[in-house]
Amino acid sequence: MNKVSRRQSRTHKAVTLALLLWTIGFTHAADLPLPVRVIDLAAIAEAPLNSAPAVVVARHAPQIAAEIDARIVELPVDVGDPVVAGTELARFDCRRTEASLASARAEVERSMAQRGFAAAQLERARDLGRSKSISDELLQQRRTELAAASADLALREQQRLLAQIDVDHCTLRSPISGVVTRRHASLGDYATRGRAIVDLVERDGQEVSVALRHDQVTSLRKATRITFEINGESHPLALRTMLPQIDSATRTREARLLFEQQAADPGSAGRVQWLGGETLLPADLLVRRDGRLGVFILRDDVATFVALADAQDGRPAVVQLDPATRLITDGRQRLSDGDPVRVIGEAE
Fold it and tell me: What's the rounded Cα separation, in Å, for the pair 306 and 321?
């Protein structure tokens, strides 16, 4: 029995010693830094690409109309012709308006003569009034006649001005530099005031008009790069304005953008694309700790858990960290906040 007891005692001591050594080894292993791989946030984060249908609109596309009633005697431009500001677009038969101007000038001269006569009559009446050779009533009549002659002269001068304006409108000129896009009349047509003669479109200063949903408005304001995509070509844009009005039918808001380089032709339809100002992290990098989704980052050889607000399983998450932040990729699943780690390489 003594031999058996001694044998059992030695066995018990051996097992106890083995358990003690295993516990010490496990504790020591738990204290060792965990191997991980890391990557810079800038290398893996993505900016969301947004797009919306858009159209190029001309800054000015006037419809040039006649401003007098007259027959067209010259129409020197045709569709597609380039014009500059002041280019003659049409000429009208101006004989009637020129005759009206001549008549108005004659009326001015007649009124000037009548006013001069009324002024002389008043001066004579004043001289007679000093010697009491004329009644006060007659003196007042002379004053009234001069005032009436002065008013008539002013009226005739305005009529002459109107006649001169009509003569100036005998030649229809382009108000902008652009291209003729349509002719509404032909040589010999009788034009009336307000009738369209030609359409123009400005060659420079085009803008892009795009209708945005509510969730796209903020994204476009923060965009880092905006382009107009058409027929495989990409045109850089800059946001000019966001209209403070929402379309009640489509619930969209219009934005206007300017071309930074070569502009597309007015009327061109394409898409506006922009990179949102937010940074998105791929969904497969997210881990859950204490009921919150987030990522592990490397800080002084320690794994730090950063929770991401509004993060959802299976969807890219918005992250607001420095682009140089080191994200832990391989080995993140077994980490807890504050664990020491050892970087064994860069994530691929």
Answer: 10
